[in-house]
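The pair is set out directly below:
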Amino acid sequence: MHKAYRFRLYPTPTQAKLINQTIGCCRFVYNHFLAEWNQAYETIGRGLGYHECSKRLTALKQTLPWLKAPDSTALQNALQQLDEAFDRFFDGTANAPRFKSKKHPNQSYTAQCNYPKKGRPSIEVDGHRLKLPKLGWVKFAKSREVEGRILSATIRRNRTGKYFVSILVETEIPPLPATDKQVGIDLGLKHIVVLSTGEKIEHPQYWRRYEEKLAYSQRVMARRKPGGSNWQKARLKVARLHEKIANCRNDFLHKLSTRLIRENQVVCVEDLRVKSMQKNRKLAKSISDSAWGALSQHARV
């Protein structure tokens, strides 16, 4: 089975520059071949496919030498993502692929782990250091051991400028101990969860806790000249508050869903149309703060 480990990365300024460059190159490759794919579909009635894009990428590197700087597997992975996006579109499970924007708050790229017959793998862990293609050894916050055969590493930069890595491994995951307990979950606002056993779990309301502080920071940002140094400082402060709220909420939901899954063999979650309910202006903010969809997703996984 596949399992992912997520850690905070601490690259040097040189490594951070190469990460940003790789993210930009992957975005360029994705957008470039999305445009060519769409043009081919309009001209000959079919798309290019991954292998055709891969051939054209080799030729494109001769024209644009700066595409040789980042890890080659990251560029190939961008093409695979494009191919999979079109597969989902034609299967009817997703909308048509869209061009990626450099203004998106979260940016990432994925590097594959190669295992040569001689020598070390391209991605490996040594203490609190992680070896990544082209980057070399990067310091990271190792909070637990990475167990299993490493398949790939996804490097992300969030809106606050922090870097994270998700290491995908292939490993055996032992099943949880069986139990004869079952539980039903009723989702709410005052109590985020009411169990069929009668237990009520209070809503932590992380958004409400930081609402005034966030509103003040947003007002400060609105009064600054967009693009200026003071505006950038204010934007970063707002982004950090959003990050803090999201981290607190995710931590709570993960702990709650883990507890419910470990204690019960069957978990039944109320199915709600969250988007329709959010049209109610008086409840929209509280519903968003509840993150019912995320809790249901965690319980399924």
In short: The mean pLDDT is 87. The radius of gyration is 23 Å.
